[in-house]
Amino acid sequence: MNLGETALVIVDPWSTHYITSWFKRASEITRTKITPIVEASRRCGMKIIYAPAPEVAKKYPQWTRFASDTDINPLQTPPPDWPPPEFRERTGEYAQYYLGWDREPACYNHPWDKNTVAEVIQPKPEDFVVATGEQLHRLLRYFKVLHLFYCGFAANMCIPFRDYGMRPFYGRGYNLILIRDATTAVETHDTVEDLLATRIAVRDLELAVGFSTTTDDYVKACNNAA
Predict the structure, then answer these.
(1) Is the peptide bond before 83 cis (omega within 30 degrees of 0)?
(2) In whole angstroms, what is the distance from residue 135 CA to residue 133 CA?
(3) Residue 51 and residue 136: Cα distance in Å, rounded?
(4) Does the bond joining 40 to the residue before it have cis omega, within 30 degrees of 0?
(5) Is the Cβ–Cβ distance between 25 and 207 less than 8 Å?
(6) DSSP 186
(7) Within the chain, where are the H helices?
(8) 153 by DSSP, 3-state: which?
């Protein structure tokens, strides 16, 4: 694997989250796994790309480096005309289809506007920050990058499904490697004890879209390349 054709993509490495149990686990992984991954990548000259969601990416000046005019000034698109607004919002005659929250979901009240990249792995000026999959693809095309190592969060949500995540970039034809101990899934009450959702998410990505490795092996490979 040619180092110049390779990059590290860090997905949604946030500084805060409303799911406290998950955030505690993710913060520990960021500190003990992603931090040494980033440090090793810097030592060997690997391109480091932060993909922390559009609203977070735009807090960093690096994000404009491969942004298009449309990225910077998005076009206003009208709301969809189907399904009807009342159905989408589960109000009026469609209230019976409401999922049944007995209170406002915690995410509604979370201070998302204060969210940044986790303090221990803040981007440096020479790093890249992207807001969208198209922006990431534009960057990779410019530098002729073919191989992408992925870490970050969450293993069953943004890592696979963001437009800069593994499934979309498998569809674009890139070679993908998940650093499997540098991620974790959002678990439920009956999976959290043995991290079943994490193990299934990792296995699904291994089966469907790419390879996987560990933090230790990644760091060793970077040290050998430095």
Answers:
(1) yes
(2) 5
(3) 8
(4) no
(5) no
(6) -
(7) 20-29, 35-44, 54-57, 69-72, 85-88, 106-109, 133-143, 158-161, 166-171, 196-208, 215-225
(8) strand
CA 170 centroid distance within chain: 15
Q: Quick one: CATH architecture of 3-68+115-225? A: 3-Layer(aba) Sandwich (3.40)
Burial (Cβ within 10 Å: 0-12, 13-18, ≥19) of residue 143: middle
Query: Greatest CA separation found in the chain?
Result: 64
If phi > 0 it is left, if psi is from -120 to 50 it is alpha, else beta; for residue 207 that is: alpha
Length of the chain: 226
Q: What pLDDT score does 72 carry?
A: 87
Closest CA relative to residue 146, chosen from 176, 171, 167: 176
Instruction: Give residue limits of the domains in the chain.
Output: 3-68+115-225
Q: Are strands 211-213 and 147-153 parallel, antiparallel or unpaired?
A: unpaired
What tokens appear for 123 in the block? 């981007």
Long-range contacts, 123-126 (Cβ 8 Å, 24+): 123/48, 123/50, 123/60, 123/62, 124/42, 125/62
Dump pLDDT digits (tens) for 48-99: 999 999 999 999 999 999 999 888 888 888 888 899 999 998 889 998 988 8
Please say whether the beta carbons of 41 and 220 come within 8 A: no
pTM: 0.93
Amino acid occupying residue 81: D
Residue that has been written with the tokens 């500190």 in this structure: 31
- Intervals of the chain under pLDDT 70: 101-105, 108
